[in-house]
Amino acid sequence: LLERLFDDLRDVLILDDHDIAADRRVVLSRKTQDLLTEYGLVLDDRSAFKIRYYLERNFLGWSRIDALMKDPEIEDISCDGTKIPLFLYHRRHQNIKTNILFDEPALNSLAITLAQRSGKHVSIGSPLVDATLPDGSRLQLTFGSEVTTRGTSFTIRKFREAPFTPVELMESHTFDVDQLVYFWMAIENNKSLLFVGGTASGKTTSLNAVALFIPPLAKVVSIEDTREITLYHENWVATVTRDTVSEGLGANIGMFDLLKAAMRQRPEYILVGEVRGSEAQTLFQAMSTGHTTFSTMHAGGVDAAIHRLENEPLNVPRNMLQALDIVSVQALTHRGYDRVRRCREIIELAGIDPVTGSLQVNTVYEYNPVPDTFSYSGRSRILGEIMEYRGWSRARLDEELQIRRSVLLAMQEQGIRDYRTVARIVQAFAIEPDRVLASLDDLGRLIR
Fold first, then answer.
1. Which of 26, 49, 192, 312 has a CA positioned 20 to 30 A from the CA of residue 171?
2. Tens digit of each residue's pLDDT (9 = 90 or more) over 245-301
3. 112-125 burial, b if ≥16 CB within 10 A, otherwise e?
4. In what order do the strands lie in the sheet containing 94-97?
């Protein structure tokens, strides 16, 4: 019955006229009931519920991966080919092998659905797709067996609707409170940041979280291949690249094009999802001309990042690297039997040695894996520059750091970790710090 309904509904929904603004579930339910009446069938409540569930899952949802797509604890979904079980990465249980597998026609059909819902075309002639699903999840797909010999494959990196907040990164121990206060002070004072690390080390997550510290009225432009950055700021232009399917449908718009366009919009902060091509030179030119920029890069550490930046295909001259202020090295590591994300080190670039020509760096924070703590070196060029620029004494700088530390700890102690709430409190502090400090015992009343 389910297969017959599915086949008949597919024809009915394609051929029949119906209001495109109507609720799709209502339309599907009505058409299903019409067909059941036509068949002369009356179902009991349990059977009707099952039929409705599977039809909604297949027509409106994501077929057999629908439950995985709706589970907020799942980070990645990976299909390696035909008749191979799907694997997923769970926030608490790490890698899990599922009992879901597809034959070739079903897998190809799902792949086409994923591509179409992302606004992309996939075929044997164009078998590679990088796209963003309607819910913001990131899709990488290969179609057929010409590129991937085990058949169609895909990886979905789930999009978290509400980005992680600084408070949540404190609680997960990715950073400690002093590191986040350091970022807060640096971002307020227009210092440029680069988050580097391996795959799934938390680079974009960290960038998203610390971007909450950008002043609320500042002009922000973000540039990405696939949409991952989410900001609470209203004065924000979010841009993504565009690939054309065929000739005559407009030009490709790459990261380099978007970055050049962003420079003409008078941005105060430029956020680039990932640096990996010729746009790197323009990005560092933007830094050199006073634009505060945040970005991410795949690299194992600071030395590897500098090596990548200076060589093909990025080719950033060493003297331009001085414009970068801070590099945060992220890592996906082990803590007992658990895989955890930690900030391995935070490093400041301190110019070029006039004798050797090498870049001078200063390690500000370093991760100690045995006690699972972070240590401060006691030296920070960035904080020294802020103190000098603002005309602060050392005591005033320490006071400002302590104030921000108190705000973050108060949110943690009061269980305030919701993205919107944290964002509103941080923005309230930027506008009326005295009002926030007067409400430290109950920060929730600031937004009630």
1. 192
2. 554 556 788 888 888 899 889 999 999 988 888 778 888 888 988 899 999 999 999
3. bebbeebebebeee
4. 94-97, 87-90, 74-79, 153-157, 138-142, 128-132
Asked whether residue 260 falls in the same domain as residue 289, the answer is yes
CA separation for the pair 98, 88 (Å, rounded): 7
Same domain, 260 and 365: yes
Provide the residue count of the chain: 448
* pTM of structure: 0.84
Residue 150 per-residue DSSP state: T
Q: Are residues 118 and 225 in the same domain?
A: no
* Residue 322, burial from CB neighbour count under 10 angstroms (0-12, 13-18, 19+): middle
Of all residues in the chain, the percent with pLDDT exceeding 90 is 60
Domain range for 43 is: 2-60
**Whether residue 15 sits in one domain with residue 68:** no
Structural domain count, the chain = 3
Contact 133, 77 (CB under 8 A): no
* Chain centre distance of CA 40: 50
